[in-house]
Specification:
Layout lengths: L4 E2 L2 E2 L7 H13 L4 H16 L2 H37 L1 H5 L6 H11 L1
Antiparallel strand pairs: 1-2
Helix pairs in contact: 1-2
């Protein structure tokens, strides 16, 4: 069993024979998805068919909660990063001084002398 994770999702490695892997790639291309996304969809559909409906629905609901949490964390992280970038790009706003157009004013002042 794999203990490798990407965030909260678990990596699984699947080795396919080359000719059938090509069939998978062709099918994925027809559906305009990556082969890995198609395999994930096939696995989920299979599990839904063979696992007790309550157990599967419970697992899906828990996964949906984790996904919503992941999205919230991403949005919050991007919001913080944007605020930090804006803070770093505008030091003149922090000092209370208006630095906008300073170089133009200095240039004009120098040219009029």
């Amino acid at each position: 069993m794999s203990n490798r994770f990407h965030g909260k999702k678990r990596y699984l490695q699947v080795l396919l024979d080359p000719n059938r892997a090509e069939l998978l790639d062709q099918l994925a291309a027809k559906r305009d998805v990556r082969s890995t996304a198609l395999v994930r969809e096939i696995v989920y559909e299979f599990l839904e068919q063979v696992i007790d409906a309550d157990a599967y629905d419970n697992a899906r609901a828990k996964d949906n909660v984790l996904w919503a949490e992941t999205v919230r964390n991403r949005v919050e992280g991007r919001r913080k990063a944007k605020a930090q970038r804006e803070q770093q790009q505008a030091p003149e706003k922090q000092s209370g001084l208006d630095w906008s157009g300073l170089f133009d004013r200095l240039k004009n002042r120098h040219q009029t002398r």
